[in-house]
Amino acid sequence: MQHRPTDERLRALNTARSHPADLEGPEPAQVDPVVLNALLDRHGWERRGGATGRYVRWTLPGGSGRTSLLVPETRAFPDSDELLGEALEALERSGAACAREVLVSLAVPSDEIRWWRDVPAGPAGSAPWPVEEQLRGAARRMLLAAALAARGRAGYYGARHRRPAAASLENVLVGDAPGGRRLTAFAPVSAGRALAVRLHQALYAAREAIDYRRATGGMDAFDGAVEAGVSHELVEALVALVRGTEGARVGVEWSPSAGVPDECTAGDAPVEFSPGDLAVLREASSRYLRAEPSVAVRVTGTVVRMRRSGPRGEGTVRLHVIGGADVPHIRMTLDEDAYRTAGHAHLVGLPIRVHGRLESRGGFRRLTGASDVVPVQVEEAERDRLMKSLQENLDFFEEACSGDE
């Protein structure tokens, strides 16, 4: 199969690399006819008859007749593989988005997450460039919020869990967003089902909380919605999606090869949001930001920056976190003795351990009440690595005396 459509692109959500689905389509022997027929129906292909129990004929939406597929209903007949091969080749030759999306779902069994935005159309259905970027940006923020919720529930995450959550999006595929009105993401079942489930549940919980606020005037439902995955990050993504539109919808459709997850039901309609929801969403966003408490932690990390205004007194230290907190870096203010301990540990290539509280203000990047600062012994190989890092950054002490964080 050498033919690829030229006018449709799919790429990983936050990486420039190609995805295997872009390089090689599925082989006929790997395709379940039941799954292929279900995907064609989902993506708007029109059923034009066929021999009942043997095969189905499908044509492109709109009845243009440019592409016609003959797909067997089962593998019970000798020509099944031949018909599947012809159908796959026809899909690859087609330049239609609905053909490309079917191929991707076959190559990488995925749950499909869809966004729709009702935005005014420009000449010939065009839209200003920023409109498409707004849709892609809102979609990515929403998927990141769902990935954060899949790792643990919180009303506000800040910097916590952000790196592994972002890494979990590496294999999520997205297509183009022509006109900024519609976008589809493919979350592979093998790695992304938890994300899709959490997003599905969080969207319905957010919708119910908004309706409750309108009906009763109370915001209590947003507190309970945290358990379903609603957070400051999710409602901010919804604000970004809805702002500047006449309305927006988000829906999740489950992979037909993997089936519906136990926590969800089949055939759920997309969740709708309108500009009238924005005030409530912004109120919820602020509520989550204020309410998330600080967290008591015992952090182990390597000193990467030190600064104080003079040769004595307290100073500010930045740590690269090794363990004890779900953030990559923290900042803290240490008294003179603790600051000296941190500097000595850095000189000999040792991490330090410190007790304190991660403050939600600033995104859980600052440790307050730092105490009990002590060097931590590490294995020789790790110590050598830390010392090599020190030698590669000889400007450290210039920063220690004068650099800003």
Would you summarize the structure shown here?
This protein is of the alpha+beta class and 405 residues long. Helix content is 39%, strand content 22%. The protein has 3 domains: 73 residues, Metal Transport, Frataxin, Chain A; 181 residues, no CATH class; 108 residues, Beta Barrel (OB fold (Dihydrolipoamide Acetyltransferase, E2P)), CATH 2.40.50.
Number of strands: 14
- The helix/strand series, from N terminus to C terminus, equals EHHEEEHHEHHEEHHHEEHEEEHEEHH
| Cα-atom radius of gyration | 26 Å
Alpha plus pi helix count: 13
Can you walk me through this structure?
By secondary structure, the protein is of the alpha+beta class. It has three domains: 23-95, Metal Transport, Frataxin, Chain A (2-Layer Sandwich), CATH 3.30.920; 111-291, no CATH class; 295-402, Beta Barrel (OB fold (Dihydrolipoamide Acetyltransferase, E2P)), CATH 2.40.50. Helix content is 39%, strand content 22%. The protein contains 13 helices and 14 strands. The chain has helices at residues 20-23, 33-42, 80-93, 97-107, 129-151, 162-167, 189-216, 220-225, 232-242, 278-291, 336-347, 380-391, 396-402, and strands spanning 10-12, 46-47, 55-59, 68-72, 110-117, 173-175, 182-188, 248-253, 271-273, 295-307, 315-323, 329-334, 352-359, 366-375. It has a six-stranded antiparallel beta sheet with strand order 1-6-7-5-8-9, sandwiched between helices. Strands 10-11-12-14-13 form a five-stranded mixed barrel. Helix 5 packs across helix 7, helix 5 (129-151) runs antiparallel to helix 9 (232-242) and helix 9 (232-242) packs antiparallel against helix 10 (278-291). The radius of gyration is 26 Å and the shape is elongated.
